[in-house]
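[09:14] KT: can someone run the structure on this one? pasting the chain below
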Amino acid sequence: MADMSPGPGKAETSASAESRSAFDYDLVVIGSGPSGQRAAIQAAKIGKRAAVIERARAVGGVCVNTGTIPSKTFREAVMHLSGFRERGIYGSSYRVKHDITIDDLLYRVQQVVRSEIDVIRNQMTRNRVELIESTARFVDAHTVELQSAAGHGRRQISAEKIVIACGTEAARDDHIPFDGQRIFTSDDVLGLEFLPRSLIVVGAGVVGAEYATMFAALGVRVTIVDKRPVLLPFLDHEISAALTYVAQQSNVTMRLGEEVAQVKLLQGVSKPVEVGLKSGKVLHAEAVLYSIGREGATRRLDLENAGVHRDARGRLPVNEHFQTNVEHIYAVGDVIGYPSLASTSYEQGRAATRHAFGLRAEHEGGIGLFPYGIYTVPEISTIGKNEDELTAAGVPYEIGKANYREISRGQIIGDRTGILKIIFSPESKKLLGVHIMGEGASELIHIGQTLMAHDGTIDYFADAVFNFPTLAECYKTAALDGINRLAL
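[09:31] RB: done, structure tokens below
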């Protein structure tokens, strides 16, 4: 998590100097996740007095404590201990460790989380950002009341500019009897005390699909229930279909196009969780992961005192500069909704601060071109348009594909299901999209991202010399496949 913000800027104007006497801080950030960190550090880099308010004892927000970092570390522990990556070479029965426990999986997670927290605290200290461990609520549009984390004492602070970066929390239906063990959300995974032998995942969005395939890789019998007829329908249809096939081969049962009517916790049975579907089907398992989406963690902020609007899911609408309906109050990160990625959150925080203090806007109209990483098993990454989007827009396109099993590196690592697909203009040959499923997808995507950012054509891939043997060769194979399609 390197500090990539620019160095100190020009001397403050007289107007800025006057604001110092009017407010306690130039910038107050509510939340210490990726977007909050970057917003505060950017302010400190240009000589502003910045403070970050965090109600949790550990900094880093959902990203570090319950979301991105823990779930991806959990995945790596799953992939290693289960021997999943080597099964294509040594067979489906291969394991690094038999009888894997939840403690085995969480051991590495806890190490990484502690290290990340230490890195973030050090960055804030080094940049002279004040960290205030308190719960925040608005008194008015420039004033925030703080209550200490221990619940003792209150005080008020004022700021010229405020950035809301409070993140999200797992959505919970009131009629579901959550206990954090048998019936839990993704926020509860790190507190699990046992590894279930069977699991029903309600809601197959990105988080649900990720955990479903992780648990399946451990040999857990997983059933996915989702009201949509297709798994992750925003993906390119070929990638979605490939993921569905691989998941089913890993003993994942798909109940797509189904809705949950009720969830019950039974007593004295081996599978104590009962899930009734609106279609009349009844499912049983040792545990249920309830993953129906996330809501903005804004309930405690008393936004109405500042006049800030939020939607029905607690999220904050913003303009292209990340301003809320109150001009000097910004919102960044997951609390504003799509794309809800740590990578884009970092840039949103930095962009919001730069706009707040009159610095040149580097990203007019948002963040711009960015990749999307989905850490299912196998992982997926995508950038640009997919076939359905281009068809709906009436944009002509051609495709090129490379299968990992036809690439030497794919054979070496035993990945026989991986696929890299490029989509390009048949006239200009400019790259329009890249869609990858397989080992290293989230790393490989950046090669395509670079070419797209520079309006490159697939001729570059066709003519380039790649290291051999590597998965990056897939780009060359896919480009040649696409050119051959044009010649037909």
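[09:33] KT: thanks! Residues 14-74+94-170+295-356 form a domain with the FAD/NAD(P)-binding domain fold (CATH 3.50.50.60).
[09:34] RB: yep, looked fine to me
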